[in-house]
Amino acid sequence: MWGWGNSPDIMPSRICRPVFPASWSMDATPGFPPLSCIRCLAWIWWVAQSFALSLIDIISPFDCICNDCSYNLCMNTSPVTVDRPQGCTNLKLRQFMRRVAQHYDAEMSKVGLKTTQYSLLSYIEKLGPIRPVDLAASIKMEASTLTRNLKPLVDAGWVTVSAGVDARSRLVTVSDAGRVKRNEAKRRWRAAQEGINRILGPGKVAALHALIDSSMDMLAPVATKASGDE
């Protein structure tokens, strides 16, 4: 590119003389480019603009690999479409829960407990003494299922079921042996949880917890209606 302070017989000649040898004038007014140089610059500008537009057409179908790239923010304006989920959600959740339960049970078996028994023992220690009906409501478990899960804990001497304020009521309490067993199992539970965090990654585990909590809240009206219809 020529400059206003440069002599036209030096800078423009390097560009224009090979392209327009007949039109170059050495008598051009100092400080201004000859007509051939203006045409040369216009031609160069047209080629550069055409190349830039062609380059945009080539790369526009693709996304930049940078998540927060300004190209993605400006060019990727099409609405995001989500494919319709395939398969049974209930089945997938059961398969996932079975896999997770196997992971926790492998650790809990080292102290002679199942994961469900450790959870129930922890709830009773935290909430007890408590009536079975209130315990079932607190942990969102059917009364018949609670009775079935309490039996092995009572037989092992880790939980006691005593009379309540009247002859018809009962109170569930953790025994001293049950507290010792829970503290022993807590160390195995922590090892299982740390294993899940290590395998899936803390971020994914936190996102999974948030998804479960929000989904539980959204499905609560449906569960309440289903219980009322029974």
Shape: elongated
Strand order of the largest sheet: 1-2
Helix share of residues? 55-70%
Mean pLDDT over the residues: 76
Number of strands: 2
Annotation field: number of helices: 9
Unreliable stretches covering 5 or more consecutive residues: 1-29
Spatial extent as radius of gyration: 38 Å
What's the oligomerization state?
single chain
- Main structural class: mainly alpha
- What share of the residues does DSSP label as strand, in percent? under 5%
SSE succession:
HHHHHHHEEHH
> Main beta sheet, described?
2 strands, antiparallel
- Straight-line N-to-C gap: 86 Å
Detail the topology: elements first, then pairings.
Layout: H1 11-19, H2 35-59, H3 70-75, H4 89-108, H5 115-127, H6 132-138, H7 143-155, E1 159-163, E2 170-174, H8 176-200, H9 202-229
Antiparallel strand pairs: 1-2
What can you see in these coordinates?
The chain has nine helices and two strands, in the order H-H-H-H-H-H-H-E-E-H-H. It is mainly alpha-helical and 230 residues long. Strands 1-2 form a two-stranded antiparallel ribbon. A hairpin with a 6-residue loop joins strand 1 and strand 2 (170-174). It is elongated. It starts with 10 loop residues before the first helix and ends with a helix.
